[in-house]
Design brief:
The protein is mainly α. It has one domain: Orthogonal Bundle (434 Repressor (Amino-terminal Domain)). It has five helices and no strands. Helix 3 crosses helix 5. The chain is elongated and about 55 Å long.
């Protein structure tokens, strides 16, 4: 049986070790994707369109769309405003 590799080992092989610019880009893109997916799921649960969410939060539909597509490097304060004001939800942040 072949030796199983951890996800971390796979990332090291595919993108290089942490600190490498290729790996950092992957990590940043991954975070943007995850935040976008969370926003999309919660927006749909709230039965809001991107345009309605944008209106509630003082942004543009195109900005909400870019976030949901993982194409925006969003600031935590902006993400928090969209979640808390636009979706009436709370963000819980933990450091592990």
């Amino acid at each position: 049986m072949k030796k199983l590799t951890s996800f971390e080992e796979h990332l090291d092989k595919q993108y290089g070790e942490k600190g490498n610019s290729k790996r950092e880009k992957f990590e940043n893109d991954s975070l943007a994707f995850r935040l976008g997916e969370m926003l999309k799921v919660e927006r749909k649960k709230a039965q809001l369109t991107q345009e309605q969410l944008a209106e509630k939060t003082g942004t543009k539909k195109s900005y909400i769309s870019r976030i949901e597509a993982g194409k925006s490097d969003i600031q935590l304060s902006t993400f928090s405003r969209i979640i808390e004001i636009g979706l009436n939800k709370k963000i819980n942040i933990s450091i592990a």
